[in-house]
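A favour, since you know our structure tokens better than I do. It will help me judge whether the discrete encoding reads sensibly. The space below this message is yours for that.
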Amino acid sequence: MSKPVQFHILNTLSQALIEVFEKGKHADRMIDKYARVNRAWTAEDKSFFAEAVYGIVRHKRLLEYAAGSEELWPVILAYLVSKNLKPVSRPEFRELDSAKMQTRLKEKKPQAVEYSLPDWLFSLGEQEFGGEWPAIAQGLNKEPSQFLRANTLKTNAEKLIQDLKAEKINAAKIAGPLKASDGLHLKERKNVFATQACRRGDFEMQDAGSQAIAPLLQAQPGMQVADTCAGSGGKTLHLASLMQNEGKIVALDVVEQKLNDLKERANRAGATIVETKWIHSPKVIQRLQNQFDRVLIDSPCSGLGVLRRNPDTKWNLDAGKIDDLVKLQREILANYSALCKPGGMMVYATCSILKRENEEQTAWFLNGAAGKSWSLVSEMRFWPHVHNSDGFYAAVLKRKS
């Protein structure tokens, strides 16, 4: 990059980080916002900007330590130093000592600083995972891999690999314990959204761990399925593919805008069996009791399993918010499980790594009044440091006939 462009990018970088740290905006949305505004940027410019936003948000505490300051511009310089990039001449950098920052990056630091976590969160991880916590924390700090799920309503994994290759994007089938017939791993980071395959709706970007959730329902063509916390519909669309567009999927959420996004995605994907339903009152759930062969509860959670993709979460979360989420999860489990027919199956899933949101919630449900007619079939965990995926939990439960 030429110096004038880099100077401008650093200005934009500071603007984006102010919105993330001071206004609570999501890092990914700020990256998209400023990349669209700055149309003159090259692909290299956009790549640098995205990596810098994520890198600074992900390693904020470590960079503050290196900078000896919590001020934004010293932190930005510490990031450039950590990447061995020569800083451009800026007034904000003139009184700063980049050599000292380099030294502080190399010296031994407290583990909470090294893994760039708030003290309360690092202590919570130590209490819950003991000696395994450093490996988990390190896994949560790594840059995530890019995974795609071939939309089998329009193509298959083998054809998608060839179509992407024609657009100079190298992909391969997901290997290892999370391998899936329609899952792909990108060998290097690329903007896949600019491809013809994306415009045709041939794939969805979806983490390997996330791709493992929908198949647990064993949803068959012709079934009635409820995705109760559908959001913008990644798992809803996966279910439509697994069901070969036969039957019906009712996608529910308390946020209407997310369902509007899902409608657009479903139309692009050719998923014609998806119906959306906004949960605007408790009566919506009450009217749907005992109607579905399969129920997915991809529950709201702390998001501690997806810090690799959403590193801003760790700076916006606190112990009190986790307690509130645990209460909400119990309400959802107790109420939404009633949608399942006798003899049907349900999957309770989160993208958290905490037992209190996962195994302990499943045990609470089974030991309570709402869970008396249910039995546990299996539980699964996916870990960033083990599976090279986001962190997920899933419990498969069966309702007695």
